[in-house]
Design brief:
Blueprint (H helix, E strand, L loop, with lengths): L1 H18 L1 H10 L2 H9 L5 H5 L8 H19 L7
């Protein structure tokens, strides 16, 4: 039983995405998460760039965009908002 509890913790984001896959797909194409994340993270001269290696600074906006879409998926799942076809 302890194994099942640990399995549920890391699998939760996949459940959130799976329950709202169509909604997240549509939102991803209408809302430019890449641009929003780039504004949040900043460019090469930003505060983040001083603390992160230069080879990882290009990865930061993509990670932030992924975290934003996961936050949206979690919000929709917790509120039980599902788009059904």
């Amino acid at each position: 039983m302890a194994f099942a509890g640990r399995f549920r913790i890391w699998a939760a984001p996949f459940v959130w995405i799976g329950m709202n896959a169509i909604t997240l797909y549509l939102v991803w194409h209408f809302v430019k998460f890449d641009r929003i994340a780039s504004q949040i993270v900043g460019g090469p001269g930003s505060e983040l760039a001083q603390h992160v290696s230069s080879k990882y600074i290009d990865l930061a906006p993509h990670v932030v965009a992924l975290l934003m879409i996961l936050a949206l998926a979690r919000f929709l799942y917790k509120r039980q908002i599902f788009l059904r076809v």
